[in-house]
Every structure is written in structure tokens, then in C-alpha cells.
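FAQ

Q: What does a record look like?
A: Structure on top, sequence underneath. For example:
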């Protein structure tokens, strides 16, 4: 494993831990195991936002399906990459449906997203969504 965190990294270590924000991350993580927390019909609730965001971000929505409770969305960057860059464009899409608590994990060309409302966030009952955004080659 490389000991450098970025180029150039003359310091070799950071300046602090992230404990100040751990409570919110742990609160979301703890909610993920709550039975029936994932909302029904993510296509109806999320796809309109995803479609619009893809258009605005310069991405093409090439397909979607439900795998269990996960909405799998396939997007492509047709022609020239979006002006903002593909990574930023994907985060613009995530931002279109993100709720008060959101986690995004990038694994290669796949972004795993869990987002939702936690108890006390709003007047609505706590619920969430799972979305996997896959970057694919244009069709």
C-alpha cells in the first residue's frame, strides 16, 4: 500500500480526525438495519428527479431496474464529458433526490447511494432509498 495520500504529500499525515461528524454518520448507519425502512416504488419517487438531473448534468439515462429494494440506474456520458466532469455530474444527480441523511460510496464506475429521512428530521415518518448509479458506455 502506498503511504502517500496525494501528490505531492510532504506531510504524510492529516491534521485531525473526523469524530466531530461521526454522530450523524453513525445515526444513518444505525437506521439502515431498521425493518421496512426502505420506501416502496423508488421508480415513482426518484426517477423523475433523476431524469431531470441527468439532462441538466449532461448525462444520458440509458436504463433502470429494481434489484430487490435497490433502484439501479445506468447513465452514460455521450460525446464529450459534461463540462463539470462525470464525477461531479453524478453527484448532481444524487443531489436531485438526496434527503437529509445521505451516504455515497464510489466503487470504480459505480456509486452506491443510501439516502433518507431519520426520526426527527421532518413531520414524515423515517424512510429511505437505495440507489446504485452505474456509469456505462453510451449506447
Amino acid at each position: 500500500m502506498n503511504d502517500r495520500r496525494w501528490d505531492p504529500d510532504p506531510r504524510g499525515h492529516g491534521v485531525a480526525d473526523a469524530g466531530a461528524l461521526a454522530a450523524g454518520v453513525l445515526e444513518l448507519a444505525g437506521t439502515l438495519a431498521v425493518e421496512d425502512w426502505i420506501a416502496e416504488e423508488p421508480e415513482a419517487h426518484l426517477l423523475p428527479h433523476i431524469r431531470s438531473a441527468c439532462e441538466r448534468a449532461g448525462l444520458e439515462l440509458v436504463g433502470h431496474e429494481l434489484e430487490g429494494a435497490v433502484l439501479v440506474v445506468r447513465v452514460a456520458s455521450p460525446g464529450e464529458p459534461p463540462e463539470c466532469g462525470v464525477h461531479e455530474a453524478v453527484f448532481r444527480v444524487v443531489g436531485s433526490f438526496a434527503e437529509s441523511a445521505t451516504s455515497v460510496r464510489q466503487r470504480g464506475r459505480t456509486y452506491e447511494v443510501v439516502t433518507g429521512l431519520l426520526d426527527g428530521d421532518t413531520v414524515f415518518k423515517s424512510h429511505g432509498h437505495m440507489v446504485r448509479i452505474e456509469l456505462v458506455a453510451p449506447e
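Q: Is there anything notable about this one?
A: Residues 117 and 124 are 8 Å apart (CA to CA).
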